[in-house]
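Moderator note: this is an archived Q&A kept for reference. The question asked for a predicted structure of one protein chain; the sequence and the answer are reproduced below.
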Amino acid sequence: MASYTSYTTVWDADGQISQPDALAYWESIPATVNGMLGGYPQISRIDIRGSLNFVEKLCRLHSSSASNQFTRGVDCGAGIGRITAGLLSKVCNIVDVVEPVEKFAKEVHEARLAGKGRIGEVYVTGLQDWESKEEYDLIWNQWCLGHLTDTDLATYLRKCGGMVKDGGWIIVKENMSTDAEGKDVFDKADSSVTRTDTKFRAIFEKSGLVIVKTELQSGFPKKLYPVRFYALRPG
Protein backbone atom coordinates (compact mmCIF):
# COMPACT_ATOMS: atom_id res chain seq x y z
CA MET A 1 0.00 0.00 0.00
CA ALA A 2 1.13 3.61 -0.53
CA SER A 3 1.99 5.27 2.78
CA TYR A 4 2.41 8.79 4.08
CA THR A 5 5.97 9.47 5.16
CA SER A 6 4.67 11.40 8.19
CA TYR A 7 3.02 8.34 9.69
CA THR A 8 6.25 6.55 10.45
CA THR A 9 8.90 6.35 13.12
CA VAL A 10 12.54 5.34 12.72
CA TRP A 11 13.94 2.99 15.32
CA ASP A 12 15.01 -0.66 15.06
CA ALA A 13 12.48 -0.99 12.24
CA ASP A 14 12.87 -4.70 11.55
CA GLY A 15 12.53 -5.63 15.23
CA GLN A 16 9.20 -3.83 15.52
CA ILE A 17 7.27 -5.93 12.99
CA SER A 18 4.39 -7.88 14.50
CA GLN A 19 2.39 -10.27 12.34
CA PRO A 20 -0.63 -10.26 14.70
CA ASP A 21 -0.67 -6.44 14.71
CA ALA A 22 -0.44 -6.34 10.93
CA LEU A 23 -3.30 -8.80 10.50
CA ALA A 24 -5.42 -6.90 13.02
CA TYR A 25 -4.83 -3.68 11.05
CA TRP A 26 -5.86 -5.22 7.72
CA GLU A 27 -8.88 -6.92 9.26
CA SER A 28 -10.08 -3.43 10.20
CA ILE A 29 -9.72 -2.09 6.64
CA PRO A 30 -12.69 -2.24 4.21
CA ALA A 31 -12.39 -4.58 1.24
CA THR A 32 -12.26 -1.76 -1.32
CA VAL A 33 -9.65 -0.22 -3.61
CA ASN A 34 -9.68 2.83 -1.33
CA GLY A 35 -8.87 0.58 1.62
CA MET A 36 -6.10 -1.23 -0.23
CA LEU A 37 -4.46 2.02 -1.28
CA GLY A 38 -4.66 3.90 2.00
CA GLY A 39 -7.12 6.54 0.81
CA TYR A 40 -5.52 7.06 -2.61
CA PRO A 41 -7.74 5.08 -4.98
CA GLN A 42 -6.88 7.51 -7.78
CA ILE A 43 -3.36 6.09 -8.07
CA SER A 44 -4.62 2.62 -9.03
CA ARG A 45 -4.83 3.31 -12.76
CA ILE A 46 -1.37 4.93 -12.79
CA ASP A 47 0.02 2.03 -10.80
CA ILE A 48 -1.41 -0.64 -13.10
CA ARG A 49 -0.31 1.21 -16.22
CA GLY A 50 3.23 1.56 -14.86
CA SER A 51 3.35 -2.14 -14.01
CA LEU A 52 2.11 -3.17 -17.43
CA ASN A 53 4.73 -0.96 -19.07
CA PHE A 54 7.43 -2.56 -16.92
CA VAL A 55 6.34 -6.08 -17.87
CA GLU A 56 6.25 -5.13 -21.53
CA LYS A 57 9.81 -3.79 -21.31
CA LEU A 58 10.99 -7.04 -19.74
CA CYS A 59 9.37 -9.09 -22.48
CA ARG A 60 10.89 -6.93 -25.23
CA LEU A 61 14.40 -6.87 -23.81
CA HIS A 62 14.78 -10.21 -22.09
CA SER A 63 12.46 -12.74 -23.71
CA SER A 64 12.95 -15.05 -26.65
CA SER A 65 9.24 -14.72 -27.42
CA ALA A 66 7.49 -11.70 -28.86
CA SER A 67 4.43 -12.51 -26.73
CA ASN A 68 3.78 -10.80 -23.40
CA GLN A 69 1.60 -13.70 -22.25
CA PHE A 70 2.66 -15.98 -19.40
CA THR A 71 1.18 -19.38 -18.63
CA ARG A 72 0.85 -19.00 -14.85
CA GLY A 73 1.43 -16.11 -12.47
CA VAL A 74 0.82 -15.51 -8.79
CA ASP A 75 -0.27 -12.35 -6.97
CA CYS A 76 1.42 -12.41 -3.57
CA GLY A 77 -0.19 -10.33 -0.83
CA ALA A 78 -3.05 -9.78 -3.25
CA GLY A 79 -5.58 -8.01 -1.04
CA ILE A 80 -8.90 -7.92 -2.92
CA GLY A 81 -7.24 -8.80 -6.22
CA ARG A 82 -6.73 -5.30 -7.61
CA ILE A 83 -3.50 -6.30 -9.35
CA THR A 84 -4.85 -9.71 -10.35
CA ALA A 85 -7.83 -8.07 -12.04
CA GLY A 86 -6.14 -5.07 -13.61
CA LEU A 87 -2.72 -6.44 -14.55
CA LEU A 88 -2.06 -10.13 -14.13
CA SER A 89 -5.27 -11.28 -15.84
CA LYS A 90 -4.00 -9.44 -18.92
CA VAL A 91 -0.57 -11.08 -19.02
CA CYS A 92 -1.19 -14.54 -17.49
CA ASN A 93 -3.49 -17.36 -18.54
CA ILE A 94 -3.92 -18.45 -14.92
CA VAL A 95 -3.36 -16.33 -11.80
CA ASP A 96 -2.96 -17.85 -8.36
CA VAL A 97 -3.48 -15.63 -5.32
CA VAL A 98 -1.84 -15.52 -1.88
CA GLU A 99 -3.64 -13.41 0.74
CA PRO A 100 -3.73 -13.91 4.54
CA VAL A 101 -6.92 -11.91 5.22
CA GLU A 102 -9.88 -14.15 4.43
CA LYS A 103 -12.38 -11.36 3.70
CA PHE A 104 -10.02 -9.96 1.08
CA ALA A 105 -9.35 -13.37 -0.46
CA LYS A 106 -13.09 -13.91 -0.89
CA GLU A 107 -13.30 -10.72 -2.95
CA VAL A 108 -10.82 -12.09 -5.48
CA HIS A 109 -13.41 -14.51 -6.86
CA GLU A 110 -15.76 -11.57 -7.49
CA ALA A 111 -13.16 -9.37 -9.16
CA ARG A 112 -13.96 -8.13 -12.67
CA LEU A 113 -10.94 -9.28 -14.65
CA ALA A 114 -9.66 -6.84 -17.26
CA GLY A 115 -7.96 -9.61 -19.22
CA LYS A 116 -8.76 -13.13 -20.40
CA GLY A 117 -6.80 -14.90 -17.66
CA ARG A 118 -8.64 -16.83 -14.98
CA ILE A 119 -8.21 -17.26 -11.23
CA GLY A 120 -6.42 -20.44 -10.23
CA GLU A 121 -5.65 -21.39 -6.64
CA VAL A 122 -6.39 -18.97 -3.80
CA TYR A 123 -4.12 -19.50 -0.79
CA VAL A 124 -5.43 -17.89 2.40
CA THR A 125 -2.13 -17.69 4.24
CA GLY A 126 0.82 -15.41 4.91
CA LEU A 127 3.75 -15.27 2.53
CA GLN A 128 6.07 -16.76 5.14
CA ASP A 129 3.84 -19.87 5.36
CA TRP A 130 2.84 -20.17 1.71
CA GLU A 131 3.75 -23.38 -0.11
CA SER A 132 2.86 -24.35 -3.67
CA LYS A 133 3.72 -27.22 -5.98
CA GLU A 134 3.21 -24.97 -9.00
CA GLU A 135 5.96 -23.35 -11.01
CA TYR A 136 5.39 -19.77 -12.11
CA ASP A 137 6.35 -17.58 -15.03
CA LEU A 138 5.62 -14.44 -13.02
CA ILE A 139 5.66 -13.98 -9.23
CA TRP A 140 4.32 -10.54 -8.34
CA ASN A 141 5.05 -8.95 -4.93
CA GLN A 142 3.73 -5.44 -4.31
CA TRP A 143 3.16 -3.43 -1.13
CA CYS A 144 3.30 -6.54 1.04
CA LEU A 145 6.93 -7.40 1.79
CA GLY A 146 7.17 -4.76 4.52
CA HIS A 147 5.25 -7.12 6.81
CA LEU A 148 8.12 -9.63 6.75
CA THR A 149 11.27 -9.29 8.82
CA ASP A 150 14.57 -9.18 6.94
CA THR A 151 15.21 -12.84 7.80
CA ASP A 152 11.71 -13.95 6.79
CA LEU A 153 11.92 -11.92 3.59
CA ALA A 154 15.20 -13.54 2.57
CA THR A 155 13.72 -16.99 3.26
CA TYR A 156 10.56 -16.13 1.32
CA LEU A 157 12.49 -14.85 -1.70
CA ARG A 158 14.66 -17.97 -1.75
CA LYS A 159 11.38 -19.92 -1.84
CA CYS A 160 10.23 -17.81 -4.78
CA GLY A 161 13.51 -18.58 -6.53
CA GLY A 162 12.63 -22.26 -6.34
CA MET A 163 9.13 -21.69 -7.73
CA VAL A 164 9.94 -19.51 -10.72
CA LYS A 165 10.38 -21.21 -14.09
CA ASP A 166 13.53 -20.85 -16.16
CA GLY A 167 13.11 -17.55 -17.99
CA GLY A 168 10.44 -16.40 -15.54
CA TRP A 169 10.38 -13.34 -13.31
CA ILE A 170 10.12 -12.48 -9.65
CA ILE A 171 8.86 -8.90 -9.41
CA VAL A 172 9.17 -6.75 -6.31
CA LYS A 173 7.39 -3.39 -6.35
CA GLU A 174 7.71 -1.59 -3.03
CA ASN A 175 7.96 1.79 -1.35
CA MET A 176 11.47 3.15 -0.79
CA SER A 177 12.58 4.72 2.48
CA THR A 178 13.46 8.41 2.19
CA ASP A 179 14.98 8.63 5.68
CA ALA A 180 17.73 11.27 5.75
CA GLU A 181 20.09 8.87 7.54
CA GLY A 182 19.45 6.05 5.10
CA LYS A 183 17.55 3.89 7.58
CA ASP A 184 14.56 1.64 7.16
CA VAL A 185 11.34 3.15 8.48
CA PHE A 186 8.71 1.51 10.70
CA ASP A 187 5.01 2.30 10.36
CA LYS A 188 3.25 1.54 13.64
CA ALA A 189 -0.21 1.83 12.07
CA ASP A 190 0.05 -1.36 10.01
CA SER A 191 3.23 -2.82 11.58
CA SER A 192 5.29 -2.66 8.42
CA VAL A 193 8.77 -1.58 7.38
CA THR A 194 9.68 0.62 4.43
CA ARG A 195 13.17 -0.42 3.36
CA THR A 196 15.95 1.40 1.59
CA ASP A 197 17.14 0.40 -1.86
CA THR A 198 20.42 -0.64 -0.25
CA LYS A 199 18.63 -2.99 2.16
CA PHE A 200 16.58 -4.59 -0.61
CA ARG A 201 19.69 -5.20 -2.69
CA ALA A 202 21.43 -6.86 0.26
CA ILE A 203 18.42 -9.12 0.89
CA PHE A 204 18.18 -10.05 -2.80
CA GLU A 205 21.85 -11.05 -2.80
CA LYS A 206 21.37 -13.09 0.38
CA SER A 207 18.39 -14.81 -1.27
CA GLY A 208 20.42 -15.85 -4.31
CA LEU A 209 18.56 -13.50 -6.66
CA VAL A 210 20.03 -11.07 -9.18
CA ILE A 211 18.49 -7.82 -10.38
CA VAL A 212 17.92 -7.90 -14.13
CA LYS A 213 16.12 -4.56 -14.32
CA THR A 214 15.00 -1.86 -11.89
CA GLU A 215 13.25 1.47 -12.25
CA LEU A 216 11.04 3.90 -10.37
CA GLN A 217 7.28 4.15 -10.83
CA SER A 218 6.34 7.57 -12.20
CA GLY A 219 3.24 9.69 -11.79
CA PHE A 220 2.45 9.23 -8.08
CA PRO A 221 1.78 12.23 -5.78
CA LYS A 222 5.03 13.60 -4.35
CA LYS A 223 3.75 13.28 -0.77
CA LEU A 224 3.93 9.49 -1.13
CA TYR A 225 7.06 7.39 -0.91
CA PRO A 226 8.97 6.69 -4.12
CA VAL A 227 8.05 3.25 -5.47
CA ARG A 228 10.63 1.04 -7.17
CA PHE A 229 10.33 -2.03 -9.39
CA TYR A 230 12.88 -4.86 -9.27
CA ALA A 231 12.84 -7.67 -11.83
CA LEU A 232 14.68 -10.63 -10.30
CA ARG A 233 15.89 -14.06 -11.33
CA PRO A 234 17.87 -16.74 -9.50
CA GLY A 235 21.59 -16.14 -9.85
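Archived answer notes: The CA atoms of residues 72 and 94 lie 5 Å apart.
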